[in-house]
Amino acid sequence: MKKALKAYGAVLRLVRRLPKDTRPYYAKYARENFVNYREVDAADPNALNDLFNRTYTHSLWVLNKYSVDQAAADKLKEICCS
């Protein structure tokens, strides 16, 4: 649970780097996704690792879409891919 909260916080910090008019959409999108997947079995490490990897790769996709430097996601990578 702690790792998920750290990932969520890192995603919200990345949302702040996006253009101002897109921030509400991506903040809401991130929250909805974290809420939707909160019922994932915490005892299944494969499911959790898959979700964290998708969190990171999707965040990179959004950053690239708006030409934000991918280095901004280094903290998220550290959380999700460790």
Automatic annotation (TrEMBL):
Organism for this UniProt entry: Vitis vinifera
Recorded superkingdom: Eukaryota
PANTHER family listed in its UniProt record: OS01G0342800 PROTEIN
Protein name: Complex 1 LYR protein domain-containing protein
Family listed: Belongs to the complex I LYR family. LYRM9 subfamily.
Alphabetical list of CDD domains matching this protein: Complex1_LYR_LYRM9
Chain ranges of the Complex 1 LYR protein domain: 3-56
InterPro entries in the record: Complex1_LYR_dom (IPR008011), Complex1_LYR_LYRM9 (IPR045291)
Pfam family, any one: Complex1_LYR
